Prior knowledge:
The chain is of the alpha+beta class. It has one domain. The chain is 23% helix and 23% strand. The protein has one helix at 10-19; strands at 24-28, 34-38. A two-stranded antiparallel sheet has the order 1-2. The radius of gyration is 14 Å and the shape is elongated. 0% of the residues are buried. The model has no long low-confidence stretch (mean pLDDT 76).
Amino acid sequence: MKILWSRVPPALQLVQVFRAATGRQMRRSPDGGITIKSAVAVFG
Length: 44
């Protein structure tokens, strides 16, 4: 078997998360990752 991907530690995920975090909520996903929810309503 060949491993195609591995789990990224949360500390390394935070760098990317904080770049786009203004005005959004960060939550932990059920599988241990990070999800971002927009606090602004989007119409379109």
